[in-house]
Amino acid sequence: MLTNLTNVKVELSVVLGRSVIPMHQLLRMGRGAVIELDSRQDDPVTILANDRPVAKGEIIIHGDKIGVSVTELLRGYQ
User: Fold this and answer.
1) H helices within 1-78, ranges in order?
2) pTM as predicted
3) What are the structural domain ranges in the chain?
4) Rounded distance between C-alpha atoms, residue 6 and residue 32, angstroms
5) What is the spatial distance between Cα 9 and Cα 65, in angstroms, rounded to a whole number?
6) Count of C-beta atoms within a 10 Å radius of residue 15
7) Please, which residues have CB within 8 angstroms of residue 51's CB and are 6 or more apart in sequence?
8) Span 10-51, pLDDT tens digits
9) Is pLDDT of 78 > 60?
């Protein structure tokens, strides 16, 4: 049985790392400011669907394009 899923909306996000910054410092940051994250460039990223973790992946850089390669589906989504 085939089901038409054209009207299902899913918001995808990729978490590269986290940082804790006081609000007053955040409000003073301007365009181009750098925020240090708690992860390294080669650390796995978390892929979220509608704010729920569904997979792990790695960042792929090809020229001026950045992508994410899925390396692991999290339990419950396999």
Assistant:
1) 23-28
2) 0.73
3) 12-73
4) 37
5) 25
6) 13
7) 11, 13
8) 999 999 999 999 999 989 999 999 999 898 878 999 999 999
9) no
With cut-offs at 50, 70 and 90, classify the pLDDT of residue 76. Answer: confident
12-73 folds as: Surface presentation of antigens (SPOA) (2.30.330)
User: Closest Cα to residue 12, out of 64, 48, 65?
Assistant: 48
DSSP letter for 74, please: P
Residue 16 to residue 19: CA distance in whole angstroms = 10
**Quick one: how far is CA 68 from the chain centroid?**
9
Residues in CB range of 35: below 8 A, 6 or more apart? 19, 21, 29
CA–CA dist 68, 75 (Å, integer): 19
Q: Where are the beta strands (DSSP E) in the chain?
A: 12-15, 45-49, 52-62, 65-73
